[in-house]
Structures are given as structure tokens and as C-alpha cells.
From TrEMBL:
Keyword terms: Signal
Domain (BURP) ranges: 96-313
Protein species of origin: Cephalotus follicularis
Organism superkingdom: Eukaryota
Keyword Protein transport among UniProt keywords: no
Pfam families assigned: BURP
Keyword Signal: yes
Name the UniProt record assigns to this protein: BURP domain-containing protein
Length: 317
């Protein structure tokens, strides 16, 4: 479930390990989560597929679009649509809950996507990612580089990601987009301080669900991970792995929750509760789903399997 990073030299060692393991789709690389998906303007999800693990061949990247929506609903500031119509609720929105739901034996419908990580966009090394510009002003060049026409859904997705990444953080927020695992670790270490050992939490499907939306039962008393600070990294739609990482100053509570599905599925899920939602957009989809008003109740959500949540490693955890 969690894995732990020790001082920097070891970080880089572990990093290399992950990179070598990635093409084989080991559980470690699954934790690192190379798949990218985020809701687009047209509610499409994009998934880039790389055909060659040995080198960067952008022209061979195929992008497959799916009519699913998930990730940018998880952040109050990473939103495309203020208010999707709820009469055709997207099943992937079944990730929100309230603090009161966090009880042993509680049953609730949850959506966990069961992804095939071998078709995920590629995680680049920092050398590779540094050789490709990552800015909105370079979009025409990038579209040519990746062979996408400017009206294609892929072009929209890239524009969306570059825009989200270029946006200034709001007050009290730390954010960055990482285009390689190394840059993600560097940014994260900068936020927490170089001397802080870090731990990454993920949602792990121990026994994979075949039905993506189903009822799950909380099997153990939810375990709270004490974290004075956290940085959550969400994957973004792009031809290679891009993580949108952010942290807020407002109080958050992080949990590790053991879940059992109706057909023997087992999930160890990472979830966060945002304790203060008073500043959120009142059209945020979670308020409609939970039927609450901003600021009246914490909003919690499960993390998808391809997200990473970084927290300091504390002795008493
Ligand atoms: C994942 O996708 C690859 C390539 O499309 C395919 O060969 C493989 O069988 C898939 N694995 C699973 C578990 O579906
Ligand atoms: C979950 O269980 C409830 C009560 O049995 C049922 O009404 C609902 O349809 C179930 N939801 C899913 C997604 O299976």
C-alpha cells in the first residue's frame, strides 16, 4: 500500500528501480500509476498508449478516448465543468462521501476503475521530458511533434492540461505539474523539506473488481494517517505521464480504508476528507452528490488507483 522513501540517494535508487520495472507492469510501477485520465470539456477521457518502451517515439503514441469522467472532480480548483447534470450521473463520480460514512461495516457504492496499466501513457525520464517543451505557447509545435491535428480531441486534451498546469495556485495552495517521476519527487521534497522522509499512499486493488461501480463494505476501522501536510498528485491527459500535484493549507484528514466488494474484491483505498469546504465553488459536483452546502460538512473522496498522495513519514504512523 504505502511505500516509503528514505534520503535522497536512496530516493534516486528507488526511482531507478521503478523506471526499470515500469515496462513489466510490476506492482510497484502500478503504484506509481502511469495511466492518465481526467475529464475533458466534452467529458471524454484520454488515454495514451505507447508502443515502444525502450525509447520515446511520439509518433507511435496512440491516444484512446473514453467516455468517462473522474479526476478533476476531486479537486475544487481543477474543474472544467461547474455543474454536470446529475440525472445522468457519471458512475465514476461515486467516490465522494462524508466523514460520517467512515465506519466499520458501512456499505456504499464506489467506483474504482480497473485499468490496464500496460496501455498507460509512458512515464518519461527527466532527460526525455526536459527535451520536450511543456508550455501552452508551444502547443502548435507540440501538436506537430505528436502528430495531432489542431482540432482533434487529443489537441484539446493537451491544451486543457497545459492550461491547468500554467494556472497560478490560489491563495494557500501549492501546486505544480510534474512531467517525470524525478521532477515529482524534487517538487515534493521542496515542499516538505529535504530532510523529510516521504511516504506515498495509493489506492491498491488487491483483488480486482470486474464491476467498476458496486457496493463496498468497510471491513476494518478506517486508519487515519496523521499528516500535517500532504501533496496529492493526479494524472492528467497527455501523450506521456503528467501529474498535477497540489496541496492546500486548509485542514485535511487522510485515511486508509479496507474495502470488500460483493464478489470478494478487496481494495485498500486511500481517501482524504477536506474539512473546510467553505471556499469551494458552490457548484462543485461533490455538493450535489452528497446533497450538502459548502462549508456545512467535510467532503471526502477516495483516490483513484493512478493517484499518489505524498505525506511525511512520521515515526508514530
Ligand atoms: C492489457 O493491454 C494489452 C495491450 O492492449 C493486452 O495485450 C493485455 O492482454 C491487456 N491485459 C489485461 C489484463 O487486460
Ligand atoms: C447497493 O446496495 C443497495 C441496497 O442493497 C442497492 O439498492 C444498490 O442498487 C446497490 N448499488 C450497487 C451499485 O450495486
Amino acid at each position: 500500500m504505502g511505500f516509503v522513501f528514505f534520503p535522497r540517494s536512496i530516493v534516486h535508487y528507488v526511482l531507478l528501480l521503478f523506471m526499470f520495472q515500469c515496462p513489466q507492469g510490476s506492482s510497484a510501477s502500478r503504484n506509481i500509476a502511469m495511466e492518465q485520465q481526467v475529464a475533458l470539456d466534452d467529458h471524454q477521457r484520454i488515454r495514451a498508449e505507447h508502443e515502444d518502451d525502450k525509447g520515446m517515439h511520439p509518433n507511435h503514441i496512440n491516444i484512446i478516448l473514453h467516455n468517462l469522467q473522474q479526476h478533476d472532480n476531486l479537486s475544487p480548483h481543477l474543474q472544467v465543468h461547474p455543474s454536470p447534470l446529475m440525472d445522468h450521473m457519471d458512475p465514476s463520480l461515486n467516490v465522494f462521501f462524508t466523514l460520517n460514512d467512515l465506519k466499520l461495516g458501512k456499505v456504499m457504492p464506489i467506483y474504482f476503475s480497473n485499468k490496464n496499466f500496460s496501455t498507460s501513457p509512458r512515464l518519461l525520464t527527466s532527460e526525455e521530458s526536459n527535451s520536450i517543451p511543456f508550455s501552452l505557447s508551444q502547443l502548435p509545435y507540440l501538436l506537430q511533434f505528436f502528430s495531432f491535428s489542431k482540432d482533434s480531441p487529443q489537441a484539446k486534451a493537451m491544451e486543457y492540461t497545459l492550461k491547468q498546469c500554467a494556472q497560478e495556485p490560489i491563495k494557500g495552495e501549492t501546486k505544480f505539474c510534474a512531467t517525470s517521476l524525478e521532477s515529482m519527487l524534487d517538487f515534493t521534497q521542496d515542499v516538505f523539506g529535504l530532510d523529510t522522509q516521504l511516504k506515498a499512499l495509493t489506492t491498491t486493488l488487491l483483488i480486482k473488481p470486474t464491476v467498476l461501480l458496486q457496493n463496498y463494505t468497510i471491513l476494518d476501522v478506517p486508519k487515519e494517517i496523521f499528516a500535517p501536510k500532504m501533496i496529492a498528485c493526479h494524472t492528467m491527459p497527455y501523450p506521456y505521464s503528467v501529474f498535477y500535484c497540489h496541496g492546500q493549507e486548509t485542514e485535511n484528514r487522510l485515511f486508509e480504508i479496507s474495502l470488500g466488494g460483493d464478489n470478494g474484491e478487496r481494495v485498500v483505498a486511500a481517501a482524504v476528507c477536506h474539512m473546510d469546504t467553505s471556499q469551494w465553488d458552490r457548484d462543485h459536483v461533490s455538493f450535489r452528490i452528497l446533497n450538502i452546502e459548502p462549508g456545512t460538512s467535510p467532503v471526502c473522496h477516495f483516490f483513484p488507483t493512478d493517484n499518489l498522495v505524498w505525506v511525511p513519514l512520521l515515526d508514530h504512523v
